[in-house]
Specification:
The protein is built from 2 helices and 4 strands. With about 70 residues, it is an alpha+beta fold. It is elongated, with a radius of gyration of 16 Å.
Protein backbone atom coordinates (compact mmCIF):
# COMPACT_ATOMS: atom_id res chain seq x y z
CA UNK A 1 0.00 0.00 0.00
CA UNK A 2 1.81 3.17 -1.15
CA UNK A 3 1.71 6.22 1.09
CA UNK A 4 2.99 9.48 -0.36
CA UNK A 5 3.46 12.58 1.78
CA UNK A 6 3.93 15.88 -0.03
CA UNK A 7 4.90 19.06 1.80
CA UNK A 8 4.56 22.43 0.12
CA UNK A 9 4.51 26.01 1.28
CA UNK A 10 1.10 27.57 1.80
CA UNK A 11 1.04 30.13 -0.97
CA UNK A 12 -2.37 30.09 -2.56
CA UNK A 13 -2.45 26.58 -3.97
CA UNK A 14 -6.00 25.85 -5.06
CA UNK A 15 -8.04 22.77 -4.27
CA UNK A 16 -8.04 22.01 -8.00
CA UNK A 17 -4.25 22.12 -8.19
CA UNK A 18 -3.89 19.81 -5.20
CA UNK A 19 -6.47 17.41 -6.65
CA UNK A 20 -4.47 17.33 -9.88
CA UNK A 21 -1.26 16.53 -7.99
CA UNK A 22 -3.03 13.69 -6.15
CA UNK A 23 -4.45 12.34 -9.41
CA UNK A 24 -1.16 12.48 -11.29
CA UNK A 25 0.94 10.97 -8.49
CA UNK A 26 -1.60 8.15 -8.20
CA UNK A 27 -1.45 7.59 -11.97
CA UNK A 28 2.35 7.54 -11.88
CA UNK A 29 2.41 4.88 -9.15
CA UNK A 30 -0.08 2.82 -11.10
CA UNK A 31 1.84 3.15 -14.38
CA UNK A 32 5.38 2.70 -13.06
CA UNK A 33 4.95 0.42 -10.04
CA UNK A 34 1.65 -1.24 -11.01
CA UNK A 35 0.04 -0.16 -7.73
CA UNK A 36 -3.76 -0.15 -7.77
CA UNK A 37 -5.14 3.38 -7.24
CA UNK A 38 -7.43 2.14 -4.48
CA UNK A 39 -4.32 1.15 -2.49
CA UNK A 40 -2.61 4.52 -2.89
CA UNK A 41 -2.82 7.15 -0.15
CA UNK A 42 -1.53 10.67 -0.67
CA UNK A 43 -1.40 13.55 1.78
CA UNK A 44 -0.55 17.15 1.04
CA UNK A 45 0.62 19.21 3.97
CA UNK A 46 0.82 22.97 3.54
CA UNK A 47 3.38 24.75 5.69
CA UNK A 48 3.28 28.48 6.43
CA UNK A 49 6.26 30.23 4.84
CA UNK A 50 7.27 31.49 8.31
CA UNK A 51 7.73 27.83 9.30
CA UNK A 52 9.82 26.76 6.29
CA UNK A 53 13.37 27.90 5.93
CA UNK A 54 16.49 27.32 3.89
CA UNK A 55 19.84 29.03 3.44
CA UNK A 56 19.48 30.40 6.97
CA UNK A 57 16.26 32.36 6.45
CA UNK A 58 12.55 31.69 6.38
CA UNK A 59 10.78 31.33 3.06
CA UNK A 60 8.84 34.49 3.94
CA UNK A 61 12.11 36.44 4.21
CA UNK A 62 13.43 34.86 1.00
CA UNK A 63 10.25 35.80 -0.92
CA UNK A 64 10.47 39.40 0.34
CA UNK A 65 14.11 39.64 -0.73
CA UNK A 66 13.29 38.20 -4.16
CA UNK A 67 10.40 40.65 -4.60
CA UNK A 68 12.65 43.60 -3.80
CA UNK A 69 15.39 42.37 -6.14
CA UNK A 70 17.78 41.32 -3.35
CA UNK A 71 19.14 37.85 -2.77
Amino acid sequence: MPFVSIRITREGNTAEQKAQVIKEVTETLERVLHKPPEWTHITIEEIDTDNWGFAGVTTTEMRKAQASGKR
